[in-house]
Amino acid sequence: MNWNLGIRQTLTIVKMELARYILARRWLGVYLLAFAPVALLLAIVLGVNPSKSPSTANQSMIFAFLFQTFILRMSIFFSCALVFTQLFRGEILEKTLHFYLLAPVRREVLALGKYLAGVVATGLIFTTTTVLENLLLYSIVPSGTSFFLEGPGISYLARYVVVVILACCCYGGIFTLTGLLFRNPLVPAFIVAMWEAFYFILPETLQKVTVMHYLQSLLPLVIDRGPFSVIIDPTGPILSVVILLVVAAVFVWVTGMVLSRAQVSYSAD
Asked: How does DSSP assign 216-246, residue by residue?
């Protein structure tokens, strides 16, 4: 394989796909899921009494709860499900996938290019909203500036951003493959959603075969998960990052292998 040609083709596919993301109205739901917490926090900030400013510790726990219960498990997860399952399934339904398959591009390169475009799109959206949410939360704290400049604020934010990007990478890889394999990707998406959402009640061995366990291991703060949660030691940050990247790479590689052997039959859909 000519690696220089492969890289150029991958980047070209990424650019083409990103242009479609920006213009497509089908991703309106993704923007709504992503910016809903921003709108909520903005409303809360505007309604706060200046004489009763909260502490940085209080705001940190509020964001930890919001991030771990809504943003990570619902907003990012379902946005990735929506975007990545449609990378190939959407093309099949619109009867446009053959244009890509007839081009002189290796199908593994096609799978990688479309996947990377999804990661860039979702990663940018949720990184932006994560930064905005943090700025809004700490803007009403008198010591908010010092919390970022002198305290752990920047470190916390950086870890949240890393988790957002890794979540998009991992869930993106999973849903890219399921979108290619299953005519109705909602069924596997629901199964994965249940597995990931309630990972904390699983035994230790099973928790370590969930994406959420390794994402949680990278977060700066942990929230109480109730009396039914099974508490286990978090995996080290470096190992967590490596495992998540390997998982994403494996799913994308398998997608490329499946696509290289696939035959498009629009009449079946």
From this structure: HHH-S------TT----PPPPHHHHHHHHHH
